[in-house]
């Protein structure tokens, strides 16, 4: 539908009586299209039998609650942008006389009145646009006013813009419409080409070029998630411009994947923000959206998604027990599991929600993104491909494909080729496939193979620094109320305890090594942990005996740490303070000499006073 041509034909025709209605959802771009596409075409049309072209007038009906207010708005719009018109507009009609008297220019006032009398009621060369029709409070009265004063009596060309879906069915609009409206034009998103919206940025050649290069990708995002709101699109582009200014090389070909990820993330967060799902106060709360790409977290959400899609009763059960987490809703709504481009950019998140943007942090995030892509693309393996094929089996085309991937999956699982903490999920996935009747297998036999595979996987060397991730995965299972097989959990928990012991020993050795170093590493490490979290007082005394300088340095930091410690939390750390007292009894100035000995004596006396106060507060 070529709305512009239809309206220009309507304006040019002298024998058409009635108004044109442009109907469409809020925010879809109706007003933008009117101003930028239709108005220039209309104002290029000559008025029949007049030596002038048509002039468009625009009045928003938003909030109008009486006809007099509408007449005032229309009059102010009608007055030309001349000196007189500017004066009247700046003071409004009711204050023109006061202004004139104050200036002792009665003639000015009289000329204004005469001008208004002669000109303000002459709309023969105007096309009047009444926008936001559904948002006025007196729709029946306004329709009557428009029909009586413009359409029926004077055959003035009128265009009404609104959203009929928001008009109460009980109102008489739909009856009166038959008399007033000549034609209703349905406005949809396709009428406003995205490239036309981009033109506002054509002064910045590089960014404009990037937008044109990503036009089809942007359109795909809008279509996929059924986003028609033009204001949201414009808002998203504004945010992307800020990001582009901080890193202009986004437009380079080698940054194609970065550009797509930035566009996708900025649009998704804008959709959430503009729909009220996220608010400005959330700009420091990431809502776990940064965790959606972590394997353990994604596995849990994926399993939950699959169960919900297979068994609707599972979804009802979840909703009756607890409200779904925001990240799960986000994960489902935007199909994160199949969106390779999804990546969480904290700076873009903050920019969209609050307007606050730190360019230095953004540059660091780009570096992190590139590292993530390298790891992701290098992490593909046959066992992962087999798992993904079963996990997202809706992508498979034949039963033969399914059987082949299942056989590979079970072979890899039994051989221990998956992470040991993944085996509860793998068993759940197999059970899910059986429930779906996608595979014909005995779950008890599958379990025995999973136990064997988990045992093999747990005997492999694993860096203990991954322990927090395993603990997080276990905690997340509890929060999601996922019941893991107890036999598998025995193997997993035993491995976690082994890793915990290994990590504690590693931390202890590193902690004691740092004590001997006169460096910032010592200060930072000590301040970041509770005293004796990694080592006992005996361990520390043994190390301090090797170096008088380390003695002094350790005690200085200890004093500084205790001085700024929150005494309201002292009860929680009472045992640590008792250990500190025992440590003080072992550290003595005799371990040093000269200036160091004197300083150590002063530090010990200060520290004892502080500890006595703390001890008194917790006793």
In short:
The chain folds into four domains: 3-79 and 120-190, P-loop containing nucleotide triphosphate hydrolases (Rossmann fold, 3-Layer(aba) Sandwich), CATH 3.40.50.300; 194-377, no CATH class; 382-503, no CATH class; 516-618. Helices cover 61% and strands 5% of the residues. The chain has helices at residues 3-12, 30-42, 67-78, 83-91, 96-102, 106-119, 139-152, 173-180, 194-198, 205-213, 215-224, 230-246, 256-274, 295-310, 312-321, 326-333, 346-354, 359-377, 382-391, 399-414, 423-435, 443-458, 467-479, 486-515, 520-527, 537-544, 548-563, 574-586, 594-618, and strands at 19-23, 55-60, 126-131, 157-162, 181-186.
Secondary-structure blueprint:
Layout: H1 3-12, E1 19-23, H2 30-42, E2 55-60, H3 67-78, H4 83-91, H5 96-102, H6 106-119, E3 126-131, H7 139-152, E4 157-162, H8 173-180, E5 181-186, H9 194-198, H10 205-213, H11 215-224, H12 230-246, H13 256-274, H14 295-310, H15 312-321, H16 326-333, H17 346-354, H18 359-377, H19 382-391, H20 399-414, H21 423-435, H22 443-458, H23 467-479, H24 486-515, H25 520-527, H26 537-544, H27 548-563, H28 574-586, H29 594-618
Parallel strand pairs: 1-4, 1-5, 2-3, 3-4
Helix pairs in contact: 1-2, 5-6, 7-8, 12-13, 13-17, 14-15, 14-21, 19-20, 20-22, 21-22, 22-24, 25-27, 26-28, 27-29, 28-29
């Amino acid at each position: 539908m070529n709305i512009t041509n239809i309206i220009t034909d309507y304006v040019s025709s002298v024998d058409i009586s009635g108004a044109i209605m442009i109907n469409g959802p809020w925010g879809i771009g109706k007003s933008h299209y009117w101003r930028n596409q239709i108005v220039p075409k209309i104002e290029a049309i000559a008025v029949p039998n007049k030596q002038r072209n048509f002039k468009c007038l625009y009045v928003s009906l938003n909030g109008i609650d009486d006809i007099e207010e509408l007449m005032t708005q229309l009059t102010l719009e009608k007055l030309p942008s001349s000196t007189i018109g500017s004066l009247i507009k700046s003071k409004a009609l009711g204050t023109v006389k006061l202004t004139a008297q104050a200036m002792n220019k009665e003639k000015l006032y009289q000329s204004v009145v005469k001008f208004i009398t002669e000109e303000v009621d002459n709309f023969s060369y105007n096309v009047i646009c009444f926008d936001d029709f559904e948002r006025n409070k007196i729709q029946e009265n306004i329709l009557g006013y428009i029909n009586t004063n413009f359409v029926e009596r004077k055959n003035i060309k009128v265009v009404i813009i609104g959203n009929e879906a928001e008009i109460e069915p009980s109102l008489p609009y739909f009856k009166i419409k038959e008399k007033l409206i000549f034609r209703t034009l349905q406005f949809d998103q396709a009428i406003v080409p995205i490239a036309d919206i981009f033109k506002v940025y054509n002064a910045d050649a590089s960014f404009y070029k990037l937008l044109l290069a990503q036009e089809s990708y942007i359109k795909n995002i809008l279509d996929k998630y059924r986003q028609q709101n033009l204001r949201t699109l414009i808002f998203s582009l504004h945010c992307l411009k800020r990001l582009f200014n901080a890193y202009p090389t986004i437009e380079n070909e080698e940054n194609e994947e970065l550009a797509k990820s930035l566009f996708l993330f900025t649009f998704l967060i804008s959709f959430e923000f503009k729909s009220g799902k996220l608010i400005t106060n959330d700009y420091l709360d990431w809502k776990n959206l940064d965790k959606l790409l972590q394997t353990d977290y994604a596995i849990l959400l994926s399993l939950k998604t699959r169960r919900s899609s297979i068994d609707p009763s599972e979804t009802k059960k979840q909703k009756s027990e607890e409200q779904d987490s925001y990240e799960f809703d986000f994960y489902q709504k935007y199909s994160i599991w199949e969106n390779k481009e999804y990546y969480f950019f904290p700076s873009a998140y903050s920019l969209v929600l609050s307007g606050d943007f730190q360019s230095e942090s953004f540059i660091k995030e780009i570096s992190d993104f590139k590292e993530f892509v390298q790891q992701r693309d290098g992490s593909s393996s046959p066992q992962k491909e087999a798992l993904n094929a079963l996990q997202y089996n809706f992508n498979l085309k034949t039963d033969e494909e399914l059987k082949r991937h299942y056989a590979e999956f079970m072979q890899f699982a039994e051989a221990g080729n998956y992470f040991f903490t993944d085996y509860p999920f793998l068993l759940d996935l197999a059970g899910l496939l059986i429930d779906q009747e996608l595979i014909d297998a005995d779950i008890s036999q599958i379990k025995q193979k999973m136990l064997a595979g988990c045992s093999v996987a747990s005997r492999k060397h694993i860096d203990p620094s991954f322990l927090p991730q395993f603990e997080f995965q276990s905690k997340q299972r509890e929060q999601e109320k996922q019941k893991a097989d107890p036999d598998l959990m025995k193997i997993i928990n035993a491995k976690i305890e082994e890793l915990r012991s290994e990590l504690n020993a590693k931390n202890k050795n590193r902690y004691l090594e740092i004590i001997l170093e006169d460096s910032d590493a010592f200060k930072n490490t000590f301040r970041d942990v509770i005293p004796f979290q990694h080592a006992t007082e005996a361990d520390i005394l043994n190390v301090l005996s090797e170096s008088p300088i380390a003695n002094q340095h350790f005690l200085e930091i200890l004093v500084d740490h205790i001085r700024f410690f929150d005494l309201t939390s002292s009860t929680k750390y009472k045992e640590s303070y008792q250990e500190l007292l025992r440590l003080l009894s072992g550290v003595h100035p005799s371990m040093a000499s000269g200036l160091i000995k004197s300083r150590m004596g002063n530090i010990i006396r200060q520290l004892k006073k502080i500890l006595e106060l703390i001890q008194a507060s917790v006793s």
